[in-house]
Amino acid sequence: MLLLTKQDIQQIFTMQDALEAVKQALRIYSEGGSVVPLRVNLSAPNYEGQTLFMPGYVAALDSMGVKIVSVFPHNSEQGLPSVPATMVLIDGTSGVVCCILDGTYLTQLRTGATTGAATDLLARSDAKIGALLGTGGQALTQLEALLTVRNLTEVRIFSRSRERTQTFVRQAQAKFSKFKALLRAVETSAEAITNADIITTVTTSCQPVFDGRLVKAGAHINGVGSYRPDMQELDEFIVQRADKIFFDSQKAALAEAGDFIIPLTKGTISAAKFTGEIGQVLLNNLPGRETPEEITLFKTVGISVLDIVTAHHIYQSALKQDIGQKFVF
Ligand SMILES: NC(=O)c1ccc[n+]([C@@H]2O[C@H](COP(=O)([O-])OP(=O)(O)OC[C@H]3O[C@@H](n4cnc5c(N)ncnc54)[C@H](O)[C@@H]3O)[C@@H](O)[C@H]2O)c1
Asked: What are the C-alpha distances in Å from 150 to residues 76, 125, 145, 153, 323?
């Protein structure tokens, strides 16, 4: 068995590699090539925490596994990640665990790559201005993915804490100096999204984080945060205004994300609004953006096939490059 840390993964697997892996995962998922049971959620109400068990199987890669990922929003107060995770990868030919990976970084990498893949398919090719709402554990890879798939000149960054936003911007500037974009901390979400070509929301908010009436025609939006029926990052205006709405998994998003469950329950949108899965665009079964003025929206709640396919490729690279720590029980 191999143990792979964040540093190991960073050494051998780039955002570009992750983009390829998640595109493969999204195709496999949408053509029915994976087994992805709905995840099991256990609540720890005393800590407002939840632990999720995300199993899955991909026959074409002879890979299966389970990611154990928790969402404990108060962890950051103690310097712990809010979304800590461990990935257990299983050899699908023998059922033996072959690799344990830092699932916290795997989650950050594949979630960034997932919105990156959707942005690559749906955003206008001439997109120049990005907006990032949220500067927590997932935000850096979200930003990296946006910078990787589009030649942005400016990304405006907003979160609830001004200080935290400025610290994030300083870190991001140092890390992403090879990209030419100006990274700018802004004071309000309206300032961030007005005139933006691409908007990514990656927050733990239960209330909408921007005013959908301010979104410009032709924009592309990624919603990453809301994962429970009571959580709504995207307001009803933007869900109504979007010309096309895509998901990583439509079934999972409509079971879990308040962004859609709340307006569906109120009757302010109907299921006819939903275009389908981004994997169908990758398979050429659905068109992506068709006109420059369309507003496109992508919602991800995260599916295990993204973890398994990405972990599988990381593991294969690690074997080839002799990276990681071998371990025997
Ligand atoms: N879709 C997926 O596959 C996937 C994967 C991992 C995490 N997530 C979700 O992404 C979200 C963010 O994760 P994280 O690890 O970065 O969380 P985090 O706790 O580290 O950071 C949360 C961020 O949200 C900001 N925020 C909260 N409420 C806000 C508001 N009203 N307006 C503006 N900003 C606000 C905070 O200031 C902070 O910057 C979580 O909901 C998490 O469950 C989704």
From this structure: 31, 7, 9, 9, 31
Distance CA 316, CA 312 (A): 6
Does residue 113 belong to any structural domain of this protein?
Answer: no
Q: Which of 204, 207, 226 to mutate to test the pocket of ligand 1 (most atoms within 8 A of CB)?
A: 204
Smallest CA-to-CA distance from 257 within 237, 223, 236, 231 is with 231
Host domain of residue 74: 2-106+305-326
Q: Of all atoms in ligand 1, which is nearest to the CA of residue 205?
A: 28
What is the CB neighbour count within 10 angstroms for residue 259?
29
Which tens digit of pLDDT belongs to each residue from 70-125? 989 899 899 988 889 999 999 999 999 999 999 999 999 999 999 999 999 999 99
Residue 141 domain flag: yes
Atom 21 (ligand 1) nearest CA: 136
The CA-atom distances, in angstroms, between 19 and each of 58, 117, 146, 164, 297 are 18, 6, 11, 28, 18
Helix (H) or strand (E) holding 65: strand 63-71
Q: How many CB atoms lie within 10 A of CB 325?
A: 11
Taking the whole predicted model, whether its pTM rises above 0.90 is answered as: yes
Domain identity same for 59 and 203 = no
Task: Please name every residue paired with 42 in a beta bridge, in sequence order, or none if there are none.
Answer: 51
